[in-house]
Target: DNA-binding IclR family transcriptional regulator
Amino acid sequence: MLEAMPRPIPQDSYSSLRRAFVLLDSFTADRDELSIRELARVSGVPRSTTHRLVQELMEWGALEQGRSGMRLGVKLFELGARVSSPASLRDVALPYAHNLNEVTKLTVNLAVREGSDIVYVEKISTRSLRVPHSRLGGRLSLHATGLGKAILAFSDAATVGAVLEGELPALTPRTISDPQTLLTELATVRRLRIAYDLEESQLGLFCVAAPILSPRDEPIAAISVTGARAHSQAELFAPAVQMTALAIARALHGGRH
Model:
């Protein structure tokens, strides 16, 4: 018996798929619920198309009705849990991250690069310090974070060049927004294998980060601790962060590093 041939996908379905992703990408930590009118305005998708796609996304479970509008649905969380690379990284890194949290008593973050941003894939908080910007699944610019600089310092020239040539927005008055200054900073990070965020992503907070590297010194991720102390105190945590990053890298690659 011959298998049924798959039906050709209509040409405009690709456009509809892109628009659906644009709608989903309109939600942020500050915009977790949006009406259909707001979705159309934020995304730039025509209102009639937005209405149709919202209904389809709700049927599939990607969107659900909230108190004041639409919000991302549980189906997306289920899919995110199946992502193999960050999930396996988290599985390996989690015991080491918990240990780092216990030793330092600071918030521990694990992040990977996506484009010109970092994405937080794990966070272990402390009760004494709230770090709202490092939520799971949240994003921040590479240049404005210790995690991002730790990854960027070991990235290929094309990736570094794209970041330096792009916009370097200042999240605080201390954010490095000058390309040459950032390039000098990355050279120091590469030499020391440690990166600092000294109130660059949020005033009143420091971050000490180290890259998690492949056997060929390619960046896989980065791990950090975050606290509210002076630079001289922040430096005291560098050895613990570096040792944790190295242990995770070795565990990921079966002891080869």
In short: The domain at 83-252 is CATH 3.30.450.40 (Beta-Lactamase). The beta strands are 63-65, 70-72, 107-114, 117-124, 139-141, 195-198, 206-213, 219-227.
